[in-house]
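Before a computer can learn anything about folding, someone has to put a protein's shape into writing. The outcome of that step, for a single protein, is printed below:
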Amino acid sequence: MLAKYVARRFLASLIVVLGVTAITLALMKTTSGSYVPGIDLNPALRPEDIARLRTQLGLDEPPQVWYATWLWNVIHGDFGRSMIDGSRVTDHIFERLPNTIELTATAIVIGALRRGSKADHGLTVVSVAGFAVPQFWMGLMLILIFSVTLEQHGLPWLPSSGAFSAFQGGDLLDRVQHLILPATVLSFFYTSTWSRFIRSSMLEVLSQDYIRT
């Protein structure tokens, strides 16, 4: 019975994931012509550069071929390359994953062990808000409050750019200070999404007899 339930849930989740990715890539395919020709505004690029970029992005392929190629690459761990610096997307994921895990684990453990407390209620509010607050808006608000406003009032403030201060050599404390704002914004939505589910599972385990005794 349990195996059938798990199988149904897995198949349903798989269908949802495939559907969402197919729709997303279809929308990208539809709107892709808007940003590639826009590169023509750059006088340093030649028409052959634009054509090569379209080939690299797979924009000349039929939609079904483009999606099948992308899906095959994802299954094999290839998420493509960043449009910003050309580096592998997986490198960016693994670079930021430890910080996200640390923040997520901290929020979940506090919420589960301190259920009913002010900390737990606060995390519940944050989790619900995480579904509705756009990340770009949250980032701007955090910069305004913790970088601009605090600095203007002569209070301790958090840096909003860079990975370390140019004149401090990038020591551990300095890097942590630079990490706080971006790590908070990047992990906010994912923490909100998963913390409620995992917290419920932890509460169920903590209520078992072998844990209480």
